[in-house]
Amino acid sequence: MKKKLMVFLMCCASLSMIFANGASEETESDFTNWPEEPITVICPWAVGGVADLVNRKAAVYGEELLGQPVLATNELGAGGNVALTNFLKNKPNSYNLIFGGEGGFSIAPNVDGKEAIMFKYDDFVPVMNMYTATFVMTADASLNINDLDQLKEYGQTHNCKVAVNGISGSEAFLAKALFKELGIDVTLVSYNGANLALDAVAKGETPFAISHQSQAKGAVEGGLITPVTVFSKDPVSSELFKDVKPVGAYEMEAYYPNTCFLLARKGTSPEVVEKIRNAYLTIMQKEDVKQLFDKLMIEPSVWTSEDMDNHIEHVIQIVKDNQ
């Protein structure tokens, strides 16, 4: 009886090893063959915005470098927070990726309304930072405001309404921190995209807006709006805005580079993350992609996951320092 029991247990152990090896081989095969279906990259901001244009350009090379088509799509709402919340439905190693940045992970969880945020940075795996950019604040040209000293003087007697992308994003936070430093009141008007916020100034809906430099370029050149400041320590390199005095020159500290992280769901295999990262790093070297970056006045990024983690923590500290 004991001998039969021993044989039975040995058979069970052997079968367990076979199944375990099979599962291991299957898992490794999944990583090797990933992706086996088209990939969708979700941009949680407006169509026609900087992140959207980068997403669509990069998607052109998806099949060439990943073996499957890459579909660029948009999901709007609450400055990106709706899409980031809905993304939690995905499982690790899914074929859905998403853009995100310091707005959703550093600012939204640390300002008014944070109780509505259902996600956190640790719910995602940072694959790479697509780019860094510097925001510019612009004004209706008829106001003749060209720097922060003139803005402060204007704010003593006028209501300063600033159009921004989402009420808890980077633009909104930078606006609040700036006007707090200037000692004048501000009213934020939220739009689903920095490009739409900029349009608000051109249409006369608000006197001020914060947007990417490239989005403001045409209206500045056309004389409809004037740049007031850029949110950086030093002047920017772009020809159009190089003479605009940055907030850092006023000894203000509430500024940082705007980022656009490409993210996967928490638990995604390191092999899958590395495969995606390598593909997108190659895409960033394509000549037409470089030309797009120059046109959009943004910088390509080779940040590591540690660099991205540090950026999130850095902005959290800036937010807490400016409450």
**Morphology call:** globular
Characterize the biggest β-sheet. Answer: 6 strands, mixed
Which radius of gyration do the C-alpha atoms yield? Answer: 24 Å
How many beta-strand segments? 11
Helix coverage percent of residues?
A: 40-55%
Please give the order of strands in the largest beta sheet. 2-1-3-10-4-11
Q: How many independent structural domains?
A: 2
Ordered list of secondary-structure elements with their pairings:
Blueprint (H helix, E strand, L loop, with lengths): L1 H32 L5 E5 L6 H10 L2 H5 L3 E5 L6 H6 L9 E5 L1 H6 L16 E10 L1 E6 L7 H8 L5 E5 L4 H13 L4 E5 L2 H9 L5 E5 H9 L3 E6 L27 E8 L4 H14 L3 H10 L2 E2 L4 H17 L2
Parallel strand pairs: 1-2, 1-3, 6-7, 6-8
Antiparallel strand pairs: 3-10, 4-10, 4-11, 5-8, 5-9
Helix pairs in contact: 2-11
Describe this structure in words.
- It is a single chain.
- This protein has a six-stranded mixed β-sheet, with helices on both faces. The protein has a five-stranded mixed β-sheet with strand order 7-6-8-5-9, with helices on both faces.
- It has helices at 2-33, 50-59, 62-66, 81-86, 102-107, 148-155, 170-182, 194-202, 213-221, 270-283, 287-296, 305-321, and strands at residues 39-43, 70-74, 96-100, 124-133, 135-140, 161-165, 187-191, 208-212, 225-230, 258-265, 299-300.
- 43% of the residues lie in helices and 19% in strands.
- The longest helix is centred in the N-terminal third of the chain and has 32 residues, at 2-33.
- The protein has twelve helices and eleven strands.
- The radius of gyration is 24 Å and the shape is globular.
- Mean pLDDT is 90; it is low at 1-29.
- It is of the alpha/beta class.
- It folds into two domains: 38-132 and 257-321, Bordetella uptake gene, domain 1 (D-Maltodextrin-Binding Protein, domain 2), CATH 3.40.190; 135-250, D-Maltodextrin-Binding Protein, domain 2.
- It starts with a helix and ends with a helix.
